[in-house]
Amino acid sequence: MVRDRGSSGQDRQVMTGAQALVRSLEEIGVTDIFGMPGGAILPFYDPLLASEKIRHVLVRHEQGAGHAAEGYAMATGRVGVCVATSGPGATNLVTAIGDAHMDSVPMVAITGQVGSTAIGTDAFQEADIVGSTMPFVKHSFLVTSADEIPGRVAEAFHLASTGRPGPVLLDFTKDAQVGETEFHWPPRMDLPGYSLPGRPNQRRIAQAAEAIAASERPVFYLGGGLNRAGVPVEQLTELVELVGAPFTTTLTALDVLPTNHQLNLGMPGMHGTVAAVGALQRADLIITLGARFDDRVTGKPDTFARHAAVIHVDIDPAEISKIRAADVPIVGDLKDVVPALTAACREQFAAEPRAEIDQWLTEVAHIRATYPTDWTDTDDGLLQPQEVITHLDKAASEDTIWVTGVGQHQMWAAHYLHFNRPHSWLTSAGAGTMGYGVPAAMGAKEACPDRPVWLIDGDGCFQMTNQELATCTLNNIPIKVAIINNSSLGMVRQWQTLFYGERYSNTDLHTGAGTERIPDFAKLAEAYGAVGLRCERLEDVDDVIAQANAINDRPVVIDFIVSADAQVWPMVAAGVSNDEIQHARGMSPAWEEE
């Protein structure tokens, strides 16, 4: 960077575009980034070395950088940042960018690009990452001039973190990074057409309160938007308890209210609890806060909650009535809507007698008592994965951050873990990305070094990104990993059991019981500088978990050898009505007995 005096006598900060990029990230408050250098992004990495404000974590694969940025963002609410070079470096970020888009995770992905004059010539490691990611980002920027850099950085972080959060791509050509510019901060942002919702419509809020007061069978349908909005637990609790209605929480919202709250029915949908699914099916009013009626919740959409009116609150107007028509649509920030709706309900309840809901609460309690979420043991003598997770849960402190991969273990974790505070549950929901777990846990631990971070992973998921254990070891990021090792692609195998006549085509991974164990996960962990443990007997589970909890100077991996025959229950098969939910003991849902 060069300083000189302009004609006004003030300091002029002349620097390269790469230096301006580093400086812009510092000015915006970035303290941690995850990435891997390469030719097209190398000009940025040179001044980054001198930064005293930004810690760079060198990953082993760019997908790991993207998922780590997601984990960082989900654990803190701040924008996560990942960096890659052009071509394959950039395309390796695509899965993580798509994952962040589906789950509304605030993330900025920085990529290098070939020189602007070489674009379109099939230059070495050229890829149109802007075009590739356009369908699943909030915005993509191709930056070709050093003068643009501060403004584009400010705009990217504003877009990623406001409204409905999501990923934003910044693609910097090499000449933009090496060219010179005069640095100014803060820059002027220019985002025509991008506007945030104002205060919620008070007439709609009043209509919602009237509908709630008139409802005899209301249910709250709470979604991940509550987490993204940062709605205080106290405010959400006040609304739920004022209304007194039972609530369900989607896969991305399991930690928005305490698991043990007396009105909590658990997760709805394909693998939801019978109580949650049944309550939604029998409701006369669904109060939807930050959820989007995705197919995993609704089942066959035209059979979902046939008798219910819908209040739908979301910051993204595109989600309102996209799947299910909203009777009371409210576009707004949930941090504004929740207290406004609480005040309106309080006023409505004081003005007129509300409908009686005691009978409804009794009915829901009966369903919950009749159909608890439990499991039946397999007869192969191996550990039951559900039991392992309950032991992990009991041994964990209340401030633990739980992360999962995707599949059966993810659903079991959703059912058997307990949460007491927000930002305690990280999982890939909308995209269902195998390989999410290890790097996401790494990002969460980097963000929250004083909180324990446990990853519950599958033997399939773990093998996709386990190389990031090396990153954890070398950067003092001591995550703990519980591999629920059923030696198979468990969820796929479950579908083969139920729908394909037990024809197990290409789902055996040869990692667990009765196999040669390729790989041996305990030895693999040790090769990466982590502690590797294995547990095969129920009487050893608590001791092995205690060993893991006592180690805090390096990563720990426990290989739990569990039954491949264990299945996730309840279950609604794809494409059918939620009325056809199946329970572990094969019983019919209570609402079918009318």
TrEMBL record:
Cofactors, names only: thiamine diphosphate; Mg(2+)
- Biological pathway: Amino-acid biosynthesis; L-valine biosynthesis; L-valine from pyruvate: step 1/4; Amino-acid biosynthesis; L-isoleucine biosynthesis; L-isoleucine from 2-oxobutanoate: step 1/4
> Where does the record place the Thiamine pyrophosphate enzyme TPP-binding domain?
405-560
Annotated EC = 2.2.1.6
Q: Which residue numbers delimit the Thiamine pyrophosphate enzyme N-terminal TPP-binding domain?
A: 15-130
The answer to whether UniProt assigns keyword Hydrolase to this entry is no
Tree of life domain: Bacteria
User: Is Amino-acid biosynthesis given among the entry's keywords?
Assistant: yes
- Note the PROSITE patterns from the entry: TPP_ENZYMES
Q: Which family does it belong to?
A: Belongs to the TPP enzyme family.
**Official protein name in the record:** Acetolactate synthase
Q: Which reaction does it catalyse?
A: 2 pyruvate + H(+) = (2S)-2-acetolactate + CO2
Q: How is the cofactor bound?
A: Binds 1 thiamine pyrophosphate per subunit.
Q: Which UniProt keywords apply?
A: Amino-acid biosynthesis, Branched-chain amino acid biosynthesis, FAD, Flavoprotein, Magnesium, Metal-binding, Thiamine pyrophosphate, Transferase
Domain Thiamine pyrophosphate enzyme central: residue ranges: 205-341
Q: Which GO terms describe its molecular function?
A: acetolactate synthase activity; flavin adenine dinucleotide binding; magnesium ion binding; thiamine pyrophosphate binding
Q: Which Pfam families match?
A: TPP_enzyme_C, TPP_enzyme_M, TPP_enzyme_N
A cellular component term from Gene Ontology for this protein is: acetolactate synthase complex
Q: Which GO terms describe its biological process?
A: isoleucine biosynthetic process; L-valine biosynthetic process
